[in-house]
Amino acid sequence: MKFTIVVQADPLASQGSETALRFTRAALAAGHQIMRIFFYSEGVHSANRLALAPQDEACVPDQWQQLISEHQLDAVVCIAAAVRRGVVNETETRRYGKTGSSLIDSAELSGLGQLIAASVDSDRVVTFGGHR
Amino acid sequence: MKFTIVVQADPLASQGSETALRFTRAALAAGHQIMRIFFYSEGVHSANRLALAPQDEACVPDQWQQLISEHQLDAVVCIAAAVRRGVVNETETRRYGKTGSSLIDSAELSGLGQLIAASVDSDRVVTFGGHR
Amino acid sequence: MSDRTLHTLNRGPQSLSLFGSMRDAISPRDSLLLIEDGVYWATAAYAEMLAGLNCDKIYQLAADADARGIQSDRIEPVDDAGFVSLTVSHQRTLSWF
Amino acid sequence: MSDRTLHTLNRGPQSLSLFGSMRDAISPRDSLLLIEDGVYWATAAYAEMLAGLNCDKIYQLAADADARGIQSDRIEPVDDAGFVSLTVSHQRTLSWF
Amino acid sequence: MSRLLIISRQAPYGSSAAREALELALAGALFDQQVSLLLLDDAVFQLVAGQNPAAIQQKNHGAMLQSLPMYDVENLYASERSLNERGLEPSDLILPVKSLSTAEIQKLISEQDKVFHV
Amino acid sequence: MSRLLIISRQAPYGSSAAREALELALAGALFDQQVSLLLLDDAVFQLVAGQNPAAIQQKNHGAMLQSLPMYDVENLYASERSLNERGLEPSDLILPVKSLSTAEIQKLISEQDKVFHV
Fold it and tell me: ipTM score here?
């Protein structure tokens, strides 16, 4: 089956981003196709490459980066949600007169239309939420 | 009176960081002393200089940067909470073998002891929380 | 000066257990300031629950009530300066969120 | 295949209104999977509330129950592969958080 | 055309959740899908008339909700129980909303291709 | 020496809140303050014996709680109501905790110099 995975959980404030990682690995292992991973709301923090974890702890953005690269998955970070939260690439920071970047290499910034399009083309959409 | 302000709210997910900004301005206007502003938990995102807001919207980290600079306030971001969330300076990213920085200029990374010390020396500690 | 705690509450009525813990913790001389989504507790539907709190005074942050279209004559509004004053007139502040 | 929704719930018993909205939304053919802090609903104290849900089957994510020291013989555990299977066997997933 | 349901459970202003639910609903409509928005629990406060968030530097959520029909988000629903518990009458609301019983909520969900909760 | 109370309302693992409350309590004790930790609502689940978070890649929260007395965080309190509602008996818990009535919670708060909620 074709899946769209929606990550809305802050990777520190909530467990949801880690649950989504495990779910995605299990779906791939079962032979399913991941159409797109879409990071929205606080989930965009899951795509911040500047997140640093002590050696004995899991670094969620590094794990997403690895999983996405290894399986060449399509990963989109909601641009409106991300730029407001400081998850940005050089193009965006320059546009706002700042410098620097924080987005993981394996994901791209784009609009909510990318979530709608993937959802419509998928058999299943599974959302991993955080705390509200 | 001497105040310590504790910001634990994600500036997007919650209103608490903006309420803390208004409270701090009002306390200064009333002639109170701000001993320290301490960013903890999801509040560390309030000190991410890479956060970008459209022109017609408030950019909370920019507002903190401005308030702290203008009044030369002491602002500390919990280092353990911040590095895990990608709010970092060059020293920290280098230590973890990455590059880049995202911390606002006016705040420094330090430990929870800085919150304890300021709290003990203050007449009042006011916490601005987020959503749990 | 008598010993008093200022409680702030920033979540709305769906956070019922938060309200319950605040109710357990509030003392007769304490005050409560409703902020952010907490101002929804000032609406008529929750008048009885607020009246059931064993505390002294209840306030609401005016900017938050205005933002949300909440009109409540029974709950005294304070502005940001008033919020600061309340933290001064109470020995400690406890934030519920 | 009959039309069924898989509901997931990731918050514990203090999120009572979340549980209430989920209860309103769940249908007799639907299933519920307790994940993350949601596994605390599988403890004995909440057996009656779970039994009151008008749904088909209730599951819990095993890794989350183990992490929290929750032992519940009444609620069927599933692993991550089982979670994926449940999303396949139900037409849609609705996540409560 | 897919039937997409967006569920919101949060009040406006206190968090970005209400706004992000609205933006997803708009995106669905702009991509020509059949979008419904369902407000549960404190999310029904999004409908309160007379919102004025100027002093807290935010955009008027009520006005954003009012614009939904213009973008072809025609189906705006709210939980009857959530409205009643909060004492909200139709005259308190900034725009008309279809009030749903639990049976109607269940039916609405069962008719969707995909359900989002923001 | 200041009397500092740290209040936690969250279960372990589902969020970082429980852990961050504990770390603040430890910091207070390391800086020689008189620290109390009060667990309310789902935070009493932090006390459950037999936690095994290896499969979710997190550190054992129960073991961290058990280490508190070694760092001179001697005062560990929990709401009696929260424990009772969750059916938690002393034998279910990983370490002894002082169970407080509402009157005792109010008294504890009134005795503090500063109160934190993480």
Answer: 0.97
